[in-house]
């Protein structure tokens, strides 16, 4: 009798447990891992870091695995080989891949920066008035890697002011990106083209002074964008929409936030850089509109990018905007994300 009653009671308990389980909250869906390879660690990418640290990607059910793959060639190799899912790199790299006749094109789906991010740094501060670009003629200029967007934007600006980089300057281009600042600090070159925060660090140390902005001079263009192989995007459209939603929220937040707030949000990505230097660098990029306000890649800006590449002699033939740009995720994100 006891065994029968116990069995009945146990059965009732099991039924109740099953009912509670069925009616209770469902287990959260497992986050989808997305592997991003960024071409460099840069304050230029503040909206990305803000979106990660503010939890905007997690809100969308995305677990970001971020690695730095120095150099556009290395970043693109990692993408094409499947080592990463998404590349954050200059849009010119997708054009280079397209020119090589790729059967699986690399698609730009969200823009992060919309100007060049380098500054012209001199050994002496600008003394009164507007900088005269013609003073560069005959000088030793420490530039960026040939074929990369920083160098192409730099040459585009110089040519705009009637300077032939190869003939009018002693142009140095054989120093690795990571070593350019060190080379200048050690005495190489009269002028150098630098990203932040290195430009501000030099100003604080009295080793160099920002006298002009290549970002302002070369105009708006899809300088750095998120891209992925078309085949991968086609198989994961929902993930890419969520990814772009998170990015848009990060872009909105950066636009609405002060340099102090942005610095506090992204400082963990730059543990060895003084906060005041970070803040000054962020402010400089905000003031010149370098951070894209949304992920949409504008056709006019795309054409400007190709003008810059053409002027540098790095464009075999122009690539149609619609061939390797897909704005559907960015357009929807802009409409829906607040």
Automatic annotation (TrEMBL):
UniProtKB keywords: Signal
Q: Which Pfam families match?
A: NMT1_2 (PF13379)
Organism lineage string? Bacteria, Bacillati, Bacillota, Bacilli, Bacillales
| Protein family according to the UniProt entry | Belongs to the bacterial solute-binding protein SsuA/TauA family.
- PANTHER family assigned: ALIPHATIC SULFONATES-BINDING PROTEIN-RELATED, TAURINE-BINDING PERIPLASMIC PROTEIN
**Where can this protein be found?**
Periplasm
Asked if the record carries the keyword Aminoacyl-tRNA synthetase, the reply is no
Source species: Paenibacillus foliorum
For this entry, the protein name equals ABC transporter substrate-binding protein
Signal peptide bounds: 1-22
